[in-house]
Design goal:
heterodimer, A: mainly alpha, B: mainly alpha, 11 helices, flat
C-alpha cells in the first residue's frame, strides 16, 4: 500500500498522459472515422473503395503491429519523430478511426430510409442529405458504441507504454521494476487508475443508451 | 450500386463522379508512388533484402512465431469460452450474493488493458511468458464472452424461460437446456468476431517477451541486421492481416447464414411453428 502512496505523483502523471493520448487520438479518430464513413456511402466509387480497403486492413491489423510500424519501422525508414508520443498518436488514431468508421456507417444504415428519401425529394444533394439529415441522426444512435470504442482506446493506449512512451502502463512497468518486492501492489494501483477512467465511461455509455432508447 | 442517399446519377453527376474517381485514384496512386519512391531510396526493393525469403530458416522462424501465436490464441479461446459461460450464469443468477460479486469481477476484468493483466501474471506469479499471455487473454476474454452470451440470453423472448419453468424445469435446467443453446447460436457472429480480437491481442505477447510472430520479426531483424527489418515486418504483418480477415469473413458468413435461418428459426418466432418432424410419442413404460 505505501508503495502506491509514495508513487502517487507518478501515477497521477501517468494518468494525465494516458488521458492526453486518448483525448488527442480520440478526436483525430472521430474526425477521420466520420470522414471515412462518409466516403464509404458516397457516390464516388474511388472514395468508397479507398474507405473499404482502409477499414478492412486496419480493423484486422493487431494494434501492436500498428505501433511497431509507427515506432520502430518508420524511424528506420527515415521518418523520425521528435517524440514517440507522435508515433503513438498516429498508430492509435489510425487504428481507432477504422472502428469509428464502421460504427458510424452502421448508424447511417439504421436511419429509416424515408429520411433520406424525403430529403432527396425536396431537392437536397448528397452532401446536404448526409450533413443535415442523416449524420445528425446517425451520430446520435451510435453514441453508445462510440463510447465503447473510446473505452477500448483508453485501454489500447497502454500499448504505447511498451513503445517508449511513458504513460500509465509505462510508469507502471518502471515502478514494478524499481519495487521488485511489491509488484502486486504497484500493478493493482495501475489497474485502479485505469478503472478510474474506464468505469465512468462505461456507466456513461449505458446511461446514454437508456436515454436514446426512450427517445426512439 | 444504388443508394438511398443520393439520386440515380444523371449524365452531369456521372461525369462529376467519374472525374472525382479519377482524381481520387490519381491522388491515392500518387501517395503510394511517393511511399514506394521513399522506400526505394532507402534501398528497400534491392533483391538482396528480399532474398532472405529464399532461406528456409527464415520461414521456419516465421512459422515458429506463427505457431506460437496460434497456440496461445487457441488455448486461450478454448479455456475462456467455458469460463465465460460459467460467469454468464453467475452474472444472471437469481441469488444476489452470487450475482453481485460476479458482476464486480466482470466489470473489473473488462475495464483493464489486456497487456496489464499479462504483465501482472508474469511478474506477480513469476510464470513463463507463454502462461502469462494465455492467462491474460483468458481473463479478459472470459469477461467479454460472458457479456456477449448474457446479451444473447436477454435478447430471447421472455416466453422461452417461462415455458421452460412451466414444464417443470428448474431455473438452472431452463438456463442450460433452453436459453443458453439459443443464446450461443444467436450470438455466434459476435463470438467469432471476438475471436479476431483475441487473435489480434496475442500480438501483445510481444510486450511480455513471448516468442510470437512479432517477436520473431524483432529477433530476426536484430540478428540479420536492420536492412531486413522492413521485408520481414511486411511479410509478418501480411500474415497477421490475412488470417484475421479470414476469421472476420467467417463471422460475416455465419451471420448471413444465421439470419437466413432465423427468419423461421427457434428464437425469433413467438408464434408456434409446427415442426414437420414431430418427435414420436413415447409409449408409457
Amino acid at each position: 500500500m505505501e508503495v502506491i502512496i509514495e508513487n502517487l505523483p507518478l501515477y497521477w502523471e501517468g494518468l494525465l498522459r494516458t488521458l492526453f493520448l486518448s483525448v488527442v487520438s480520440g478526436i483525430i479518430a472521430l474526425i477521420l472515422g466520420t470522414l471515412l464513413a462518409a466516403a464509404r456511402v458516397s457516390p464516388v466509387a474511388a472514395l468508397r473503395g479507398f474507405s473499404t480497403v482502409y477499414v478492412e486492413i486496419l480493423r484486422n491489423t493487431p494494434l501492436t503491429i500498428a505501433f511497431f510500424f509507427a515506432a520502430i519501422v518508420l524511424p528506420r525508414l527515415g521518418v523520425t519523430f521528435q517524440q514517440f508520443e507522435v508515433a503513438a498518436i498516429i498508430a492509435l488514431s489510425a487504428y481507432t478511426a477504422a472502428f469509428i468508421a464502421e460504427a458510424v456507417r452502421s448508424g447511417v444504415n439504421s436511419v429509416p430510409l424515408g429520411q433520406a428519401e424525403a430529403a432527396r425529394s425536396i431537392g437536397m444533394k448528397f452532401g446536404q442529405v448526409l450533413n443535415l439529415i442523416i449524420l445528425p441522426q446517425a451520430l446520435r444512435t451510435v453514441i453508445p458504441p462510440l463510447i465503447n470504442i473510446l473505452i477500448a482506446l483508453v485501454k489500447n493506449s497502454s500499448v504505447a507504454g511498451a513503445f517508449f512512451v511513458l504513460e500509465l502502463f509505462g510508469y507502471g512497468r518502471q515502478m514494478a521494476n524499481a519495487n521488485g518486492d511489491q509488484v502486486m501492489a504497484v500493478l493493482l494501483g495501475v489497474a485502479f487508475f485505469y478503472l478510474l477512467l474506464t468505469i465512468p465511461l462505461g456507466i456513461l455509455a449505458s446511461t446514454v443508451e437508456r436515454k436514446v432508447a426512450i427517445a426512439r | 450500386m444504388t443508394s438511398v442517399l443520393y439520386d440515380v446519377p444523371g449524365p452531369k453527376a456521372r461525369r462529376v463522379s467519374l472525374i472525382g474517381s479519377v482524381v481520387g485514384t490519381v491522388l491515392i496512386l500518387g501517395l503510394l508512388a511517393w511511399i514506394v519512391m521513399t522506400l526505394a531510396q532507402q534501398g528497400i526493393f534491392e533483391g538482396r533484402r528480399w532474398a532472405i525469403f529464399t532461406r528456409g530458416d527464415v520461414w521456419m522462424l516465421l512459422g515458429n512465431g506463427l505457431g506460437a501465436t496460434l497456440t496461445a490464441a487457441a488455448l486461450a479461446a478454448v479455456i475462456a469460452f467455458p469460463l465465460g459461460l460459467m460467469f454468464c450464469l453467475l452474472r444472471i443468477s437469481l441469488i444476489a450474493w452470487i450475482r453481485i460479486p460476479a458482476r464486480v469481477v466482470l466489470e473489473f476484468l473488462r475495464g483493464m488493458p489486456v497487456v496489464l493483466m499479462m504483465l501482472f501474471v508474469l511478474l506477480v506469479f513469476g510464470t513463463s511468458s507463454f502462461i502469462a499471455v494465455v492467462a491474460g487473454l483468458v481473463l479478459y476474454n472470459t469477461a467479454i464472452f460472458a457479456e456477449i452470451i448474457r446479451a444473447g440470453i436477454q435478447s430471447l423472448p421472455k416466453g422461452q424461460r417461462e415455458a421452460g419453468l412451466t414444464i417443470g424445469l428448474t431455473s438452472f435446467q431452463s438456463r442450460m437446456l433452453v436459453e443458453l443453446p439459443q443464446a450461443v447460436r444467436r450470438m455466434m457472429p459476435s463470438l467469432v468476431a471476438q475471436l479476431v480480437v483475441l487473435l489480434k491481442d496475442t500480438s501483445l505477447g510481444y510486450i511480455v517477451a513471448y516468442g510470437e510472430l512479432l517477436r520473431a520479426v524483432q529477433v530476426m531483424a536484430d540478428f540479420l541486421g536492420n536492412a531486413f527489418l522492413f521485408p520481414i515486418f511486411f511479410v509478418a504483418a501480411a500474415i497477421y492481416i490475412v488470417i484475421n480477415i479470414c476469421v472476420s469473413r467467417l463471422a460475416i458468413w455465419i451471420e448471413r447464414r444465421g439470419s437466413n435461418k432465423a427468419a423461421g428459426g427457434v428464437a425469433k418466432a413467438p408464434t408456434a411453428v409446427v415442426a414437420p418432424e414431430l418427435p414420436e410419442v413415447r409409449e408409457p413404460k
